[in-house]
Amino acid sequence: MKRKRSFRRAQAGFSLIELLIVVAIIAILATVAVPRLMDSLKAGRESAAIQTLRTVHSGQATLQATKQRFGTLKELTEAGQLDPNYASGNPVSGYIYTSAAEVTQDKYCVQATRQEPSTASRDFNVTEDGTIRFVESKSPGPIPHGEGAPLAGAGAAPGTGAK
């Protein structure tokens, strides 16, 4: 009598349960990592806006020293003090930079306004004393001259007269 041999195939691959467990673990990690990544991106955009406003203030100080007046973003660009992208009105790193209308011999205000609410949580401005101010809100909007809370530790450069 012939005996049937029962050979069991060697299992190759993963079972459906094992794959579902791996997918569940990846989903849990993603729910933790994605919000942190988004927060890091927002903080990076805000840091870039603050640094740009510091550059604007430095350019304004140079223009004030050479021409005895402050200038608009366009004038700063023409003087070689600022990259043309910032004066174009187009967003740079999620922020749109504008000069307030009242640029005079002793007064200016440059605003960094979020392009959309998801860009970051704060809008900024810098004035002639070099103080960078911010307003934290859900909807973006330009900050008028002198309004907003001063940014702690990020005010004027030394020797510019900020208090």
End-to-end distance: 104 Å
Shape: elongated
Per DSSP, what share of the residues sits in E-state strands of 2 or more residues? 5-15%
What value does the Rg take, in angstroms? 27 Å
Count of strand segments: 5
Mean pLDDT, to the nearest integer, reads 86
Task: Write out the strand line-up for the largest beta sheet, numbering strands in chain order.
Answer: 1-2-3-4-5
Domain count, please report it: 1
- Proportion in helices: 25-40%
What's the tally of helices? 3
Low-confidence stretches: 154-163
Give me the strand/helix succession. Answer: HHHEEEEE
The biggest sheet amounts to: 5 strands, antiparallel
Task: Provide the structure class.
Answer: alpha+beta
Structural commentary:
It is a single chain. With 163 residues, this protein is of the alpha+beta class. The protein has one domain (16-150). The protein is built from three helices and five strands, in the order H-H-H-E-E-E-E-E. It has helices at 16-67, 73-78, 84-87, and strands spanning 95-99, 109-114, 122-127, 132-136, 149-150. A five-stranded antiparallel sheet has the order 1-2-3-4-5, covered by helices on one side. The termini are far apart. 28% of the residues are buried.
